[in-house]
Amino acid sequence: AALTVRFLTRRFIGEYGDMEFIYSHNLTVDGREILFHIWDVPNSQEQAEEGSSEEKRIQWADCFVLVYSICDRASFNILPLKIQFIKAAKEGQSQEKVPIVIVGNKRDLHHQRVVSSEEGRLLALSLDCGFYEVSAAE
């Protein structure tokens, strides 16, 4: 949620509840107006729901940004399963590759890091995804 709010408003808010939101945002990219619809779902909520709700979100989306905390190994470890689920649901219907980006957040908290940048890059490479490390706070 912090990363979504930072993208939409350029402000950082550190504390969020476990709420799901859909945001709309216009942005000009390379001279073209792009309308983003962002369905922001906290990881803890996804784990608590049955697969049909998650599958509905996957069918709704055209691309995926999966965010983990570099300070939370569990948030990183769940990514391969999520990515396999997304690819099975999206690529099973067509031969097109689904765009997926893995983002390691909280780069500013390097002193609390438990997931290395190299681990993130290797996971993304092995799953044919993009990879970035960022700090929503900075």
TrEMBL record:
UniProt keyword Mitochondrion, yes or no: no
The protein's Enzyme Commission number: 3.6.5.2
Entry annotated with the keyword Protease: no
Keywords associated with the record: GTP-binding, Hydrolase, Nucleotide-binding
Gene3D superfamilies: P-loop containing nucleotide triphosphate hydrolases
MF-aspect GO terms: G protein activity; GTP binding
Catalytic activity entry: GTP + H2O = GDP + phosphate + H(+)
Catalytic EC class: hydrolase
Name of the protein this chain belongs to: small monomeric GTPase
Source species of the chain: Heliornis fulica (sungrebe)
